[in-house]
Backbone:
């Protein structure tokens, strides 16, 4: 029967289209996350040392006045109180660099720039290794969830890279 494709061919096309949509969603989210990191880094750089402590005190003041034992408010205040100027400078550098790289690579991947696939795969692989190292130092369900999300994103990038190489 000429002109008719095998039913599994249609299924493969649908699977590839779904994978491509998930790829685009993941990359857009990474790009937005990169832009947010860049803005946060710029905000921290412009406000100077101590801004996080003042911000945490401001946003927790009302809740802690109503409930001095509030878990979230107390955790946030303890966390920022332990920040040193060195840690704040590291956070600024990390947010600016990591955000810029993420945004740059996301734009390249969305625009289907061929070199962006191996560079993004390498960048994500190195970052996954670092997150795995951090998870080995101190267990965190949140970090595990982020690792799994980034592993799925890496898989989508590799699938998309293979698709673009075949075309």
Residues:
């Amino acid at each position: 029967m000429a002109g008719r494709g095998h039913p599994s061919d249609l299924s493969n096309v649908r699977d590839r289209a779904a994978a491509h949509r998930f790829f685009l969603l993941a990359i857009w989210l990474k790009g937005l996350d990169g832009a947010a990191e860049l803005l946060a880094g710029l905000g921290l750089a412009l406000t100077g040392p101590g801004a996080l402590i003042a911000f945490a005190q401001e946003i927790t003041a009302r809740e802690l006045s109503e409930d001095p034992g509030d878990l979230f408010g107390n955790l946030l205040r303890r966390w920022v109180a332990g920040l040193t100027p060195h840690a704040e400078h590291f956070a600024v550098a990390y947010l600016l660099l990591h955000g810029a790289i993420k945004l740059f690579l996301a734009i390249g991947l969305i625009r289907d720039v061929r070199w962006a696939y191996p560079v993004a795969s390498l960048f994500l692989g190195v970052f996954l290794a670092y997150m795995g190292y951090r998870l080995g130092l101190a267990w965190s369900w949140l970090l595990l969830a982020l690792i799994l999300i980034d592993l799925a994103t890496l898989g989508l990038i590799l699938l998309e890279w293979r698709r673009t190489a075949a075309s």
About this structure: The first helix runs from residue 7 to 47.
